[in-house]
Amino acid sequence: MHPDRGFATLRAAACALLIGATGTSGASAQDYPTRPITFVVSFAPGGLSDVPARFLGAEMQQRIGETIVVENRPGASGINGASSVLRSNPDGYTLLVSALSEVQNLHYLSVPYKFTSDFTPIGKIADGPTLVLIVKGDSPYKTLDDLIRVAKATPDKVTFATSGPATSPAIAVSQLNAMAGTKIVDVPYRGTALAATAVMSGEVQGAFVFYPSAKPMADDGKVRILAVASRERVTQLKDVPTMAELGFPGFEHNAFVGLSGPPNLPPAVVAKLNKVLNETVHSPSFRARIEPLGMVPPQGANTPQDFATFLVKETEYQAELAKVSGRQTVK
């Protein structure tokens, strides 16, 4: 997804991430599971990690032979839910639906763990969605260039809704300001859905929001999508240019959802979970459920090692974004 930045360091960190899978528990894939499994989602119901987690649980439980319960434990930008899984027994019955916050938080907040070494990677659930830049449907801004021209002419007058500090929409606003030389004001809301609503109502001039929050409003003409923050154009928005096409190379903000466990999760349990996970996420029915959300199933073998490597690389990329955006990072 992003250029490699030293294979030696990457390999070492990825291997460290897999240490959690070397537990000595006597649990075996043959016996596991014998009771319900809990998927912990670190955010509120209906969010970017919650919806695919529920899709996954509904289909995966049919294959694994036990009930899968999705439990929301929101708070502290996802830290509360992740911390509860970190403290859980490494028996495969409490798992974390990991998301973008896992690779972002440590660059902005005080986090009581290192995700790339303290959790056991199982596999990726889905890639996407991407951030899109929106303005009100009847806004005078027809292009990103129109918006930037006004933002430069009237510093601190153009406002963008975000979903709070240390989130992709807020980071994207800071990155745009740094790259375009603007002073767009960040106005925090409780989530990208509310941020999109603020744009639609005219409370703010624009916002970076995740695709699912923008698409229904765009279809109704209530907001206009000026750009997508992905490497390539989005299939459902083929006429909308990428930020790179508009003169902002490397301006990429893509979410993901994965499955992780506490440290020392037995290898046999990890292997069984990964096998059933891949059977589920690559099924036509699962793809049909997530594609309307701007998500796609993971590519490749999607092994625990693949997910470990991805997390390390994505953590490094988020560190670069923190520097480019000019946000204050945690030392």
Provide key terms for this protein:
12 helices, 2 domains, elongated, nine-stranded mixed beta sheet, D-Maltodextrin-Binding Protein, domain 2, disordered N terminus, 331 residues
Short note summarizing the structure:
The protein has 2 domains: 7-128 and 255-325, Bordetella uptake gene, domain 1 (D-Maltodextrin-Binding Protein, domain 2); 130-237, D-Maltodextrin-Binding Protein, domain 2 (3-Layer(aba) Sandwich), CATH 3.40.190. The protein has helices spanning 7-17, 50-64, 79-86, 101-104, 115-118, 144-153, 168-180, 192-201, 211-219, 267-281, 284-290, 304-325, and strands at 37-41, 68-72, 94-99, 120-136, 159-162, 185-188, 206-210, 223-228, 254-261. Helix content is 39%, strand content 18%.
Overview of the structural elements:
It comes from Rhodoplanes roseus. Belongs to the UPF0065 (bug) family. InterPro entries: BUG (IPR005064), Bug_dom1 (IPR042100). With 331 residues, the chain is of the alpha/beta class. It has two domains: 7-128 and 255-325, 3-Layer(aba) Sandwich (D-Maltodextrin-Binding Protein, domain 2); 130-237, D-Maltodextrin-Binding Protein, domain 2. The chain is elongated. Strands 1, 2, 3, 4, 5, 6, 7, 8 and 9 form a nine-stranded mixed β-sheet that branches. The chain has helices at 7-17, 50-64, 79-86, 101-104, 115-118, 144-153, 168-180, 192-201, 211-219, 267-281, 284-290, 304-325; strands spanning 37-41, 68-72, 94-99, 120-136, 159-162, 185-188, 206-210, 223-228, 254-261.
